[in-house]
Amino acid sequence: MFQFTTDEIDDLKNGQFLVEVEYISVDPAMRGWISDIENYSEPVPINGTMRSFGVGKIISSKHYDFKVNEYVVGWLGWQKFSVVDESKIKLKINPQKAPLSKNLGVLGLSGITAYAGFINICKPKKNDVVVVTTAAGSVGSAVGQLAKIYGCRTIGLTSSNKKAAICKSKFGYDEVINYKQTNDISSILKKIAPNGIDCFFDNVGGIQFDAVMENLNVKARIVICGTIGMPSFPIPNGPRFNRTLLIKRAKIEGLLVLDYFSEYQKIYNKLLKWYVEGKLVSEEDISDGLENAPASLIKILNGLNLGKQLVKI
Amino acid sequence: MFQFTTDEIDDLKNGQFLVEVEYISVDPAMRGWISDIENYSEPVPINGTMRSFGVGKIISSKHYDFKVNEYVVGWLGWQKFSVVDESKIKLKINPQKAPLSKNLGVLGLSGITAYAGFINICKPKKNDVVVVTTAAGSVGSAVGQLAKIYGCRTIGLTSSNKKAAICKSKFGYDEVINYKQTNDISSILKKIAPNGIDCFFDNVGGIQFDAVMENLNVKARIVICGTIGMPSFPIPNGPRFNRTLLIKRAKIEGLLVLDYFSEYQKIYNKLLKWYVEGKLVSEEDISDGLENAPASLIKILNGLNLGKQLVKI
After folding, report:
1. Residue A217: CA atoms inside 13 Å, Cβ hemisphere, count?
2. A241: which chain B residues are within 8 Å (Cβ-Cβ)?
3. Over the stretch A191-211, which tens digit does the pLDDT of each residue have?
4. Pairwise CB contact (< 8 Å): B202 & A230
5. What ipTM was assigned to the predicted interfaces of this complex?
6. How many CB atoms lie within 10 A of CB B131?
7. CA distance B224 to B213
8. Alpha-carbon distance A79 to A23, whole Å?
9. What distance in Å separates the CA atoms of residue B175 and residue B216, rounded to the nearest whole number?
10. Numbered residues of chain B with Cβ closer than 8 Å to any chain A Cβ
11. Which site in B4, B160, B199, B304 is 20 to 30 Å from A230, CA atoms measured?
12. What is the pTM of this model?
């Protein structure tokens, strides 16, 4: 259960600085962070501040390299004021280059995740056929656009006609499937990708995953970035794809963006360049007020957001 | 259905040569080659010669580079005399370096498969914990020994106490599990590999696969080399491991040795060196007479062979 509390701000120690947080991020992965089921990171402790990326302005500092009025992105938590040291910060940003909020979405964890999974793991080639689930989402829409930048053909899976329309008009998908309007995603994929799917960026699992697996091309590369369409526990059953992987010599790999944090600045610079060129656009769904953060989390877990979910503080 | 037939040998055309076949290979993959279920290669045609690797001596030649009395390994088929051109041959061998039969096993497809999957895909590091299914088999036993050469800790899964004993005494496995004597492979693995499994070379699928998946270390690498423990069709159900792959940032990749045929000679040279040094030993299960080839195939599909199954002609 989330509680909204007010505390005194601690005095800064040497090396610390105080950030006034302007936007916080709300992510599907948070489902895992507040659960006691095994995950890649420790659960947020009871009575701890909710873990979250944020962007804000330094308003006080005892750190030589982090000065007042500079803007930073990092693990600021769901709070208005955040006392942090350098270890929590991913990068300084220039607020003139892009709106602050973009640094949490297409230029933030969503964009970095999309790049790490699609470029580093899928290793796309020109004319590859690429399928993306949650195609209109903050990560999915970035993957779709990266795939177009790399000369691929893109197929998006999404949950409504409204999102499908945005996938085409805004994110440049070549084909979009509203998976809620069919019982046979596999046959649709077979029709629009008769030679098979080369890259698959999956945020969902379950029947959408199965449908793509039934249509792989030889040497397909699959990134598992999320499993939002599957229960965490107990592990559900589904088709055993061992033989498919064998026959297609396909590869599946799990992606955790934290593994790519050493490349954050390098990837950010690439994304920023494409953003400035207009090749990487994004939708944002911004709630107002810290007290609305939990409701925003529930909203994205129910798929009711459109684009990167943020809270403006 | 297999038939034993006798035909005239065609006259050699330019570029062809006649090989007197001495040993032919019998492989689990042949189950797929003679089935009409989708596979990585065309099925063997009705009334065609059964596809197979073999080793033999050139007894007549119209090819400048392939001379009478030279020994070759390649796609010779299940037959006593094979008229082939260069495209069917993988390499010439020196019969002084190793017994002829070894060139179809530990120095043949089995060894090349083990090397390609374990070295190229698993990319083993010193002290990695490595699990191998069909650990006493021709591919499995080679993987187990390669893992020891690379300084790994090896755990073999096998189907009998006799095979388990050979795994330890001959192939140097650190731990062996007779999977037929337990209902809970996963708990045994947890005990002997409490920090998790780094590399998994799987020839089987099904419950052995599941047990290993439940005990992966972070950044585990899994090769799917075979699915002999699973029906081909319809695809059976089992646990959906998407979330496991995500949390562990693990990788699964399907292996087909044919994809590594351009490196055949290079890999052969490495295997031969280890063979000569006594670091790569193997068991062979040799039937006598071409007419026994189909029975030998059934034998290995039932797991009743011990080591590389061959037929001496």
Report:
1. 17
2. 235
3. 999 999 999 999 999 999 999
4. no
5. 0.91
6. 32
7. 12
8. 10
9. 17
10. 38-40, 202, 205-206, 209, 224-227, 230, 232, 235-256, 259
11. B199
12. 0.92
